[in-house]
Structure formats: structure tokens, C-alpha cells
Amino acid sequence: MTTHATHPASTTVSAGPAAASPRPRLDFAQSAPKVFRALVGFDAAAREGLDPALVELVQIRSSLLNHCAYCLHMHTNDARKAGESEDRLHMVAVWREARHFFTEKEQAALALTEAVTLVSDGGVPDDVCAEAAARFDEEELAHVLALILAINTWNRVALSTGKVAGTDERRR
Fold first, then answer.
1. For residues 53 and 85, what is the distance between their CA atoms, to the nearest angstrom?
2. Confidence (pTM)
3. Collapsed DSSP state (helix, strand, coil) of residue 8
4. What angle do CA 63, 64, 69 make, to 5 degrees?
5. End-to-end alpha-carbon separation of the chain, Å?
6. Span 116-133, pLDDT tens digits
7. 3-state secondary structure of 136
8. Residue burial 36-67, b: 16+ Cβ < 10 Å; e: rest
9. Cα separation of 142 and 139, whole Å?
């Protein structure tokens, strides 16, 4: 079966003796292939109908907040290949201070991404939901939410399994 996985977590790469974890980590895709395929399918369904630039911005913001270097490296590269500007990529981390780089729709998605990713810091505020609902129709909003849930899951898979930035096995 050939799949185009957005965030494969199938290969553990040793970072050598200086690695944070001396023991090998779990090969998630190999150890739980049904779960992995379901996650790949969820990710693909989430992004359906969404602007590819918006998809990458959401994934980059979540990866920044979750400190997931593996996913951040992957999605900044994907965004560049899709034509995203370096200026906008550099501003994702500080988008509130650089709003003029982003559309109102992108700003609403970034705010929702932050609220959902950092949900334990006080939930998802009503005003953030209302702003997102004003910028997206219900189907789009559901897909944006699903995308945020998917990237947060991928971030946790990558961090838990010791994925190393720069080792995107999709390109092998």
C-alpha cells in the first residue's frame, strides 16, 4: 500500500551518542499500522477543501507551540515548495505583532490553532471561536479544527518517538 503520509513516524533515526534518549524509540507506523493509517486518513480528510497555504501556516504554528522540530522542519519546507514567502514563514511565530502579513482568515485560523493547541491554558475562548466562525463556513471551520487536531497528534507522535528534524522519510 502506498500512502502519501504528511507526517510519517515510521523510521527512528539515531542522533548518535549525544542523543537525548539512549534507548531506541518505537517505530509507530510499523508497530501500530492500523492506527498509523487511520491517522494518515484523518489528516488527509482534514485538509480537504482548505487552502494549502493556510494548511501549512496552521501546521507550522502548532509545531512551534509544541516545540516539534521534526514537524516544523517538514512544514516550513513544504510551505516553501508550495511558494510560501520567507517573510511570512518568519512571521508565523509572531503573527499577532505582524498581522499585515496574514489575511483575516489566516489570523483567525492561527488564533484557533493557538487556543486548541494550548487548550490546557484556559480552554478555547468564545471570542476566538466566534472570530473563526465569522471567517469560515461551518464545513471549513470543521476542517480547520480537524487539521489542528491532526497536527497536534502528529507533533505528539514525532516527539514521543524521538523523530529528528531533517529526516523526513516521505522523500526517501
1. 10
2. 0.84
3. coil
4. 65
5. 16
6. 999 999 999 999 999 999
7. coil
8. beebbeebeebbeebeebbbbbbbbbbbbbbe
9. 5
